[in-house]
Design a protein that fits this description.
2 domains, 4-stranded antiparallel sheet, single chain, binds FE2/S2 (inorganic) cluster, Rieske Iron-sulfur Protein
């Protein structure tokens, strides 16, 4: 406050473009430094946080799928991989003509298995693991059998389910 020549006490002049406070240049610099430090902190902390707290993996909740292939198109002594929720499945038709389905991931280290018609076995190429036509691990490093699914043939459709 200052006293004018007329003897009246007056408020100091204000900038008409904003509230009283630090000069605009200083406010701008404060804002610039504040946002820069915030952006820098975020760019450093975000990847660290994402690394330390991995996202939750969605469990497959699929219990049943209808395959996009007709039962009559699956030849005897053949197999193919299909999608069962977020996992691969293995559909085979045995040399005797029976349709069977299994989890398509090897029980050793989760490679996707395939069907070998030359030996009529489910086979894992990663470490030469073998499963028989019942999904039983019979050779190589796989420690457990493949999970078997239930196959239902209905009007030439193939329905694979985990539950009977
Ligand atoms: S991952 Fe299949 S045998 Fe190793």
């Amino acid at each position: 406050m200052s006293e004018g020549s007329d003897g009246l006490v007056r408020e100091p002049k204000r900038d008409d473009n904003g509230p009283p406070g630090p000069p605009r240049r200083r406010r701008f610099l404060n804002w610039l430094l504040g946002t820069g430090a915030g952006a820098l902190s975020a760019s450093v902390l975000y990847p660290i946080t994402r690394f330390l707290v991995p996202p939750e993996l969605e469990e497959s909740t699929t219990n049943q799928v209808t395959l996009p292939i007709r039962a009559r198109d699956v030849a005897a002594n053949s197999g193919q991989v299909f999608r069962f929720g977020s996992r691969p499945g293995m559909l085979i038709r045995t040399p005797a003509g029976e349709l069977k389905a299994f989890d398509g991931m090897c029980t050793h280290l989760d490679c996707i298995v395939q069907y070998r018609d030359d030996i009529s076995r489910i086979w894992c190429a990663c470490h030469n693991g073998h499963y028989d036509l019942n999904g039983t691990n019979v050779q190589g490093p796989p420690p457990r059998p493949l999970e078997e699914y239930v196959v239902i043939e209905q009007d030439d459709q193939i329905i694979v389910t985990k539950d009977a």
